[in-house]
Design goal:
Number of domains: 1
Order of helices and strands: HHEEHHHHEHEHHHHHHHH
Pfam family, one: BPD_transp_2
Membrane topology: Multi-pass membrane protein
Largest sheet: 2 strands, antiparallel
Strand order of the largest sheet: 1-2
GO molecular function: transmembrane transporter activity
Shape: globular
CATH class: Mainly Alpha
GO biological process, one term: amino acid transport
Subcellular location: Cell membrane
Oligomer: single chain
Length: 343
């Protein structure tokens, strides 16, 4: 039982990333009808927002520390971060320690600006083009963004520390009545799962309970009719593209302590996230979230040693096998709208 619970936790962790990326993909497809293969690059750019802010926070200069000497008795030169010098040791180190969560404040406007520039500068010209054209141009854009990041940050992963308050593991065994230390799980992965729930809830609440969101949902169902009412639905959809970029960016920011950011991390999630969107149903926001967590848990269980011993390599293909079965039985996906992907 403890192994099962641990795999469910692992699945929720993976499913959180899948669900957040798939949610943004579905927002774009549902509003603009665009298959955005650059969405994984937005996830990657969000992660590098955290990398950049951490690098800025840790900028330092050398000062002479008379309390420390080398073997000749000369005072040592030590690196002191500017933040420590400006705000004091306690406050400065605390800001550096919390650089990943603080990156959210930077990532929101940066990702909104990137999303708006991407939609207005490129994607709007492909609204009425075939999906194949959209895939090609957005995939090309993703490669360009990858190479730009590689040029400035290098090809090697850049480790990002979680705040000290969330370093270590939480004892789930005691919480659930098991023996102590039987189910241990990293604190930050739990934080990421809770964070994803907050973002998902915020997006759904925005779409359901705000006038802006209600108009967007109406436009997703019937864009022409909403346009006839004198509403500039195109402008609202552009804003939704920016919101989708923010969601992907925030997912990337908070994922940095789990997997060290590198220029290729967006592609690693992109294909799987598209499978999640297709399984959940193209254009269905609840379907994207449901499929994200469901496939994350399935992948986690398929990664168990006992399962791999029986079916070697099943953890590499389980998501695709599920997608094949779902699409054979229900071409629109689990919660897809009628007529979408059924032609």
């Amino acid at each position: 039982m403890d192994a099962i619970i641990l795999q469910i936790l692992n699945g929720l962790d993976k499913g959180s990333a899948y669900a957040l990326i798939a949610l943004g993909l579905t927002l774009i497809f549902g509003t603009l009808g665009v298959v955005n293969f650059a969405h994984g690059a937005l996830f990657m750019l969000g992660a590098f927002c955290a990398v950049t802010l951490n690098a800025l926070f840790t900028l330092s200069h050398q000062v002479i520390d008379p309390s420390r000497t080398d073997f000749l008795g000369n005072p040592l030169r030590v690196e002191i971060p500017y933040l420590v010098e400006w705000f004091g040791e306690a406050t400065g180190n605390a800001i550096i320690d919390w650089s990943v969560p603080l990156s959210i404040l930077i990532a929101i406007p940066v990702m909104a600006a990137i999303g708006l520039a991407m939609e207005r500068g490129l994607i709007k010209h492909f609204y009425k083009r075939p999906h194949a054209d959209q895939i090609l141009v957005t995939f090309g854009l993703a490669i360009v963004l990858q190479q730009v990041v590689k040029y400035f940050y290098g090809a090697n992963p850049i480790p990002m520390p979680a705040p000290d308050a969330f370093v270590g593991t939480y004892d789930f065994g005691v919480l659930l009545g098991f023996d102590p230390f039987s189910i241990m799980y990293p604190y930050w992965r739990l934080v990421y799962f809770l964070f994803s729930l907050v973002i998902i809830a915020a997006v759904f609440a925005f779409l359901r309970y705000t006038t802006f969101g209600m108009v967007v949902r109406a436009g997703m169902a019937d864009r022409e009719t909403v346009g006839l009412l004198g509403i500039n639905i195109g402008r609202r959809f552009t804003i939704m593209f920016a919101i989708a970029a923010i969601v992907a960016g925030l997912a990337g920011v908070m994922y940095t302590p789990i997997v060290a950011p590198n220029y290729n991390m967006g592609m690693n999630f992109l294909v799987l996230s598209f499978v999640v969107v297709v399984v959940g149903g193209m254009g269905s926001l609840p379907g994207a979230v449901l499929a994200g967590f469901m496939l994350g848990i399935l992948e986690s269980f398929a990664s168990m040693a006992a399962v791999i011993d029986i079916v070697p390599g099943i953890n590499q293909v389980i998501i695709y096998l599920v997608a094949i079965v779902v699409l054979l039985v229900r071409p629109r996906g689990l919660m897809g709208r009628k007529g979408v992907m059924e032609d």
